[in-house]
Amino acid sequence: MATNLVIVESPAKAKTIKQYLGKSYTVMASFGHVCDLPKSKMSIDIEHNFEPKYITIRGKGDLLAKLKKAAKDSKKVYLATDPDREGEAISWHLANVLGIDNKEKCRITFNEITKTAVKAAIAEPRAIDLDLVDAQQARRVLDRIVGYSISPILWKKVRKGLSAGRVQSVACKLICDREQEIEQFVAEEYWEIDASVTDPASGESFIAEFYGKKGKKMKLSDKASVDKVLSQLEQADFVVDSVKAGEKNRHPAPPFITSTLQQEASRKLGFTVKRTMMAAQNLYEGVTVPGHGTVGLITYMRTDSLRIAKEALDDARAYIKTQYGDAYLPASPRIYKTKATAQDAHEAIRPTYPDLTPASLKASLTPDMYKLYKLIWERFIACQMESAVYNTVNVDIVAKDYLFKANGRQMKFKGFMVLYVEGSDETEEERNAMLPLLSAGLTLQKESLSSSQHFTQPPPRYTEATLIKTMEEKGIGRPSTFAPTITTITARGYVTREKKQFLPTELGKVVTDIMASHFTDIVDVAFTANMEKELDSIEEGSADWVKIIRDFYDPFSVHLKKAESELAKVKIADEVSDVVCEKCGRMMVYKMGRFGKFLACPGFPECRNAKPIIKETGAKCPKCGGKILEKKSQRGKKYFGCEHNPKCDFMSWDVPLAKESCPKCGGLLLQKTGRAKKVVCASETCDFERKA
């Protein structure tokens, strides 16, 4: 009996959908794209309207044969790839390969992989959206032209293996520009004065901060200015000038979109963008949950929309009412406004079933999936809760002509904060203490005056979270491009990470300088953001993709020819180490490889000596007494192992402490990595542990 065929991208997604559709449906996976541009050449016909020359991806021949046979034996074929430009392009390629007419209603999409959503999509198939396909194709062609035109110039003039990209080059320039700001920053001195004062009635003391003179803000820039103020305050009375009491509300953060999820997972969980998206993909495609079967746990994770379905709002409000009571439930649902530049095809990222709490799913999820689901679930439920309320008081205190200020704040009602508080890139100093009950005209008792010297700080280097935030704010790239962009600039050796911050390498600076001097538009933030809008207009059907590419290519080709003729060869000197090559005696240099830096002999090709960078921890191996070295796994993750490996099998993900031994057994102590801030004994027979 002929069945209906549903084609999705991944086997996990296929498994989830299969259980919703029953025996009359066959569900197969395409394993992503089936057709693409070949890697060996540009494959864009510039002369004939930039027509891309697609080929079947190597190794997919057998799969396509199976899909063709299944399609031929089926009554109806449904293409159920992801609900975005990339997914639409995959469906378009599948339709072409399987001989399905573009006008045929074969395309189904769903924002969440639930039985209701899948059944609803099957009931209302549509034709392939060619505007969406054109938008994806335009991006692919544009990126291919930029990458395959500029990269050979970089190979010839700088170093083999380099690449340029429309979005990656802008991201790299942001990091280089920030480093330049830091290098050129001139610190300015400033001082602060604090007065410790006491309310004579209650005996409570508090700190008042110096503000200025005669009501105007006053900057203290040197010690002489501070000493002058302090001398005049020695005999001064500190009198309360005004007291303002009130209430302040703190509202919950909106539900996650792709960029905010990546930022928050970086801040709170220490996840890289790649790690976040991998866990999110698994949660979206489906997880086997006892009593529920295979369930898609979150909505589609590539989105910049804050829209929430009414059913999901109702479910969240019902959960809040049951678990927290009416006091925590606003009178009406919170509706969050999506940015005008966002694509509103999808919802925000939320749990598909709010009643499936993180605790109830913990046993069914990997640690990464559990942590990310908990973050998404808590943020979503909290976004529909009442605001937190603080009692606040602001006091102005006059001492002679000088003004001091003191602020107090105390939690009155926790609201959404009982469940979730948004992270921040800046250090926030929370003062949850109220001031004593004061009144205007009251003379306070001065306990002490103290001054402190400070210097202004340069802007901080970008972290993954702040880089994504900046890219989003400036309109560089789209939700689907943030993760691959960061991966690319790191893999190419243009930037490195130190303590989670991005630093440009010498190579990154050189390439960025070349791009800025010869391909100004490519690294121009405004130009790149405007190009994203152009791509959006193609998707909306209001612009022709060929014209947009032509308008870009004509001036670009002029810059390309100029760069080829004018750009001089650039020699980047390798950083010299203090390690002597044991084979030829030269000082070894640092090179960048697939898994980060390594040591190589500069005498290549005569001397081919290369080895990993050995970092000694100073600690001794508890098994054989050898040195414990800091190493990297094949995936680039840091761990610690014995120098005598493989003879000695000691290894640990936790940091060995060199200057301290276990007070119980004298053995090696390890500081736990991650969020468990404690020190433990490495011996399995010793139970010693303490806070880090």
Can you give keywords for this protein?
single chain, about 700 residues, alpha+beta, six-stranded antiparallel barrel, four-stranded antiparallel beta sheet, globular
Describe the structure.
This protein is an alpha+beta fold and 692 residues long. Helix content is 34%, strand content 24%. It has a six-stranded antiparallel barrel with strand order 8-9-15-14-11-16. A four-stranded antiparallel sheet has the order 19-20-21-22, with no helix packed on it. Helix 3 packs across helix 5, helix 5 runs antiparallel to helix 16 and helix 5 runs parallel beside helix 17. The longest helix is centred in the N-terminal third of the chain and has 28 residues, at 130-157. The radius of gyration is 31 Å and the shape is globular. It starts with a strand and ends with a strand.
